[in-house]
Write a structure and sequence with these properties.
Blueprint lengths: L16 E4 L2 E4 L5 E2 L2 E2 L15 H16 L8 E12 L7 H16 L6 E7 L8 E9 L1
Helix pairs in contact: 1-2
Length: 142
């Protein structure tokens, strides 16, 4: 498992996460390292889904890192209330849930099984910078 990036670099005029009380909402996180997009293009029907695992993990780790930036001393993420997984898919792709499972597995590996919450997996026509995936988290902290 790769390391959580604690300071994902915003690609526009926004912040990577915002906090209200004990809830933290992230912006959409793509598979970037040090601001450089590492996984781009359409998710293809003809390609094994495992090819996309690394990009999904990286985007998920970036989202977790954005949440960690909002924590105060002695706080931790208690639950991912909801995760949104947006996939840049070609027409006819139907394995959204299986690719979204890579994001869920990353959450479980980093935060534990009890942290997992609800999830939305959606195929879209395009994503910013032609990223393969974009992850949004809504987390509760304590």
């Amino acid at each position: 498992m790769k390391k959580v990036t604690k300071n994902p670099i915003p690609q526009g005029k926004y912040i990577s996460a915002v906090r209200h009380a004990n809830i933290i909402y992230t912006s959409g996180m793509t598979p970037r390292k040090d601001g450089v997009l590492l996984h781009s293009g359409k998710i293809k029907v003809s390609v094994p889904i495992e090819v996309y695992k690394e990009g999904v993990e990286l985007a998920t780790l970036n989202a977790i890192g954005s949440v960690l930036n909002c924590l105060e001393m002695n706080e931790k993420i208690s639950t991912v209330l909801q995760m949104h997984v947006f996939l840049n898919t070609e027409h006819g792709f139907t394995q959204h849930s299986k690719i979204a499972d890579f994001a869920s597995e990353t959450i479980i590996n980093v935060l534990g099984i009890k942290s997992i919450g609800s999830r939305v997996a959606v195929g879209v026509a395009s994503l910013p910078s032609n990223a393969t995936v974009e992850i949004v988290l809504v987390c509760c902290v304590n």
